[in-house]
Design brief:
By secondary structure, this protein is an alpha+beta fold. About 20% of the residues lie in helices and about 20% in strands. The strands form six sheets. The protein has a six-stranded antiparallel sheet with strand order 1-8-5-10-3-2. It has a three-stranded antiparallel sheet with strand order 7-6-9, with no helix packed on it. A hairpin with a 2-residue loop joins strand 15 and strand 16.
Amino acid sequence: MADAYVPPEPSKMAIPPVESPFVKEFLSSSELDDATKQQALFYAENGYLVIDLELPDFDEMCERMIRDLDEHYPKVDVGRRIDEAWYYNDDVRKLAAAPKVLDVLQLLYQRPAFPFQTLNFDVGTEQPAHSDTIHFHCMPRRYMVGVWAPLEDVDAQCGTLFVVPGSHKLPDYDMSELGLLASSDSYRSYEDLVRRILDVCGLKSQIVELKRGQAVIWSANLFHGGSPRLDPKRTRHSQATHYYFEDCMYYMPMESDTFGGSICYREAIDIGTGRMMPQTYRGAPLELAKQKKVFRYPRPLPQWVTGVPRSLKDRIIG
């Protein structure tokens, strides 16, 4: 006699609980308090959430970051940003690993998160709408988030961040699905198509005005960007940190043709601990040294980074 059929459990799906069609079922069965459940529902519906960082001595930390990072910005009028300042600035690293952020991500996604990339800004970017899934992605999908924390009060005048509520429910398009070559050379065409997609879907942007000490978390596929700088004299000192979750495979969609068999994998370092994070695919270990194309962090790595495979220390892959 055949075994009785056992229906699959929605909780076993390889989808973040907060992005699952069963999010209300997940929340009703959880032990979260009512206020946290309401925050999770807001995040599930809108794709972003504003939180308080609750970091001690944050005012002093922000002033120190603003001062110490000043000499590292490129001497250009546009595109002023610092990549991976955590290499040499302990405050950038501390903000990236803020316990409150990690706790909220654990509650929302039911999986440990870790910061793997930072960007620091001194002025608004005015960057067109984009989804982070075109830059960083993972398998299972959408186990990645962005967090933006201003180091000073921000508003519309300084060109604050904008988000497009609800846009995270759109498909997480890659270049091939948009009819574009898998290359950074296609990025301007990507931005043009995104603008038209959001317009035809009737999705509107919303600026995010924050006080120092607050931060906004957004879903992997939430479209966002930088609003116009209405007052060019205003600064917008801030930090964006991107987070992956454990037990995933990490890759670079813009440089990948997944269905053509060309995947650009990427290293993932837990900025908080300095550990090179192991990667898995469907529960099995994934060895980067065996892959043809891997995005690596710039070398040399900080001395406190550990767990770097020997085969990746001295050669560039991809």
